[in-house]
Amino acid sequence: MNQKTFTSASDIQEIFDCIAPEYDRLNDRLSLGQHRIWKAMTVKWSNPNLGDTALDVCCGSGDLAFMLAQKVGISGKVVGLDFSSRQLAIAVHKQERRSQQLPLEWIEGDALALPFGNNYFDCATMGYGLRNVTNIPLSLQELHRVLKPGAKAAILDFHRPEQAYIRAFQQWYLDNIVVPTAREFKMMEQYAYLAPSLAKFPQGKEQVRLAFEVGFKQANHYPLIGGMMGVLVLSK
Q1: How many CB atoms lie within 10 A of CB 152?
Q2: Distance (Å, rounded) from C-alpha 46 to C-alpha 124?
Q3: Residue 3: inside a domain, yes or no?
Q4: Distances in Å between the alpha carbon of 80 and those of 13, 117, 179?
Q5: Could you give the number of structural domains in the chain?
Q6: Are 131 and 157 in contact (CB under 8 A)?
């Protein structure tokens, strides 16, 4: 049986629509719950303050957006944007289940054509989104456009580690943990996309170069867990 190759934006959108019902459980299981720590670090690096207007691009089921909302408070505003309507529906459901009122708005939209004016947001985050867009420079350019001068953005994602022995461990983890888990959840086809997306994703130094090219004044990439994860921190 031929395995489907995911290449277009609609293909990737199909992946995230399909995995939406199990996305949170898979994240918890595959990261042993560590993804919450990485996301908290990402939010901190984006430097949200009380009263800020914040953006979470490729928000998925809303984890980063909820963390941002806690930081900006009821006087602020957080917009979570994603192209997957099913992921957004789960984010909305999670918000409805919370007793605490949070300043959140959910928008179905494209990370390559953000539906906001120039210089609009005080800070921004993106989790596991940059690796999945079809045009990384354009995504960074759009993020730069909608941020206010001096604003920060933090982008969390998986990476291929530079050191060979860590790459070997990552491949073992993909083969022996991710694949069996995806099989158990009947999502082999969707999670088969992970390895090739890692292979083509620019390394940290290249991400920094691309960020400077679109106009960011500061750009630093911080590797996590041996370089298997990283956060790109940007200042406009």
Answers
A1: 20
A2: 6
A3: no
A4: 16, 16, 29
A5: 1
A6: yes
User: Residue 3's pLDDT is what?
Assistant: 42
Q: Which residue has the tokens 């560590």?
A: 34
What count of other Cβ atoms lies within 10 Å of the Cβ of residue 109?
16
Q: Two tokens at 137? A: 């420079």
Model confidence over 194-226: pLDDT tens digits? 777 788 899 999 999 999 999 999 999 999 989
Distance of CA 171 to the CA centre of its chain: 21
Look at residue 58 in the predicted model and tell me its pLDDT. 95
Strand runs labelled E in 32-131: 53-57, 77-82, 104-108, 121-127
CATH at 32:
3.40.50.150
Amino acid found at 159:
H
Query: Is this prediction's pTM over 0.90?
Result: no
Instruction: Give a yes or no: residue 53 inside a domain.
Output: yes
Residue 207, both tokens:
């991400």
Q: Which residues contact 56 (CB under 8 A, 6 or more apart)?
A: 62, 64, 65, 68, 78, 79, 80, 81, 124, 125, 126, 127
Instruction: Name residue, tokens 């949200």.
Output: 48
3-state secondary structure of 1: coil
Q: Containing domain of residue 159, as a range?
A: 9-235
Rg (CA), the chain: 17
Q: Which amino acid belongs to residue 46? A: S
* Residue whose token pair is 């720590």: 37
- Residue numbers of the chain with a pLDDT score lower than 70: 1-9, 11-33, 185-193
Residue 111 placed within a domain: yes
Residue with tokens 């943990």: 177
Tokens of 215: 């106009």
